[in-house]
Amino acid sequence: MSLTTALLKPGEADRLVAGHPWVYSNSIARLTGPANDGDVVQVKDHRQRFIGVGFYNSRSKIAVRILDRERTDFDAGFFRERIAAALALRRRHLPEATSFRVVNAESDFLSGLIVDKYEDVLVVQTSSLGMDKRKHLIVRVLQDLFHPTAIVERNDMASRKFEGLHESNEVLHGQVPDHFTVRLNGLTFSVPAGGGHKTGLYLDQQANYAAVATLTKGTEVLDCFSYLGGFALHCAKAGAKNVTALDQSEDAVNAAREIAKVNGVTTGLSYETANVFDWLREKTATGPSERLIPRYDVIILDPPSFTRNRAAVEGALRGYKEIHLRALKLLKTGGILATFCCSHHVDARLFEDIIVAAATDAHVLLRRTRTFSQSPDHPIIPAIPETEYLKGFAYEVVR
Ligand code: SAH
């Protein structure tokens, strides 16, 4: 059967030839025949040169998501090969991990599909119509490859509505426990099934938890935006003298306290329900002739993305600057600031500019000692800039 072709306008092919999978609707000159949403189409440049095949959706701004550079059947064999390759990459780069992101959409050449492995439970997200329509095929392949006790979908992302998809949180295979138990770097986390952020945990920080914890032995640590205590618990286990962790979500704080207990950490780690902005403002407020005494050796800042879109960047930058300024005021000389930014719209350069501006206002000089990125189960494809979003730095306060 011949495929309908999406013919590109002149000048629109280069990005795609370089490896980006998204064909925007406004870069298509015309379709050569009928195509239903979710169908496979081929993409050609304005000179009829073949570029690739992918899933079509007339309702989405991303009208075609290219999945292969050759004409391919998107059958079980295709998904098996792609998912097995993604798994092999994790085994190479995270050989010890038992919970990790198996498939990270564009990073694994499967635009529209995320699969997270929480021990023997798999959580699936399908954010494109073409992928969503093939969910049951994908589930069969996942069963064969992983023999999981359960596969659940966590399809409550806002982005689905841009594809004309509704929320859906079904059990796709097996029996789902109330909570998943997840092992990260030898620590045990418990995540409510169907609850929590992302698909349950911030797997993208797995490598950074361990890296930051090595800096904290014997120190006084403040973990801001702690969620289930990923950083805080790793630091406490690595021998931090005292860890204070802050999150505004009472549910997260309660769950984090429970997780600490399960891991046998009963002293030296305290969770507070607080708005970090208010908390830092209060702790850095000084009277007319009062001097602030810095109290922390290590401060971790891992806020949510304050920018859902480009328009929100300016406000986000003010927020980032404010928390850095106040955190730096609370850090001892020689202390360490470990700070992360998960917004794709704020790149590493801009992020560091904000930190430096905050340092200037706080009258401190920083030495950068570490750079962090997303864990290797969230691979970065430079030809697809959207695959890079998490960046972090550790700085020492020189003076
Ligand atoms: N560091 C965490 C992830 C942080 S996600 C980890 O590695 O798991 C961001 C967290 O910030 C969420 O738990 C959210 O509840 C919390 N949050 C968002 N805005 C906040 C604010 N103004 N004050 C305190 N917590 C906030």
What would you note in describing this structure?
The protein is α/β, with parallel strands linked by helices and 399 residues long. The protein folds into three domains: 64 residues, PUA domain (Archaeosine Trna-guanine Transglycosylase, Chain: A, domain 4), CATH 2.30.130.10; 107 residues, RNA methyltransferase domain (HRMD) like (Transcription Regulator spoIIAA); 196 residues, Rossmann fold (3-Layer(aba) Sandwich). Helix content is 27%, strand content 29%. The chain contains ten helices and 20 strands. The strands form four sheets. The protein has a seven-stranded mixed β-sheet, with helices on both faces. Strands 2-6-5-4-1-3 form a six-stranded mixed β-sheet. β17, α9 and β18 form a beta-alpha-beta unit. α5 packs parallel to α6, α8 packs across α9 and α9 crosses α10. The relative contact order is 0.09. The model has no long low-confidence stretch (mean pLDDT 95). The structure holds S-adenosyl-L-homocysteine. The site of S-adenosyl-L-homocysteine (SAH) has 19 residues, from α6, β15 and α8.
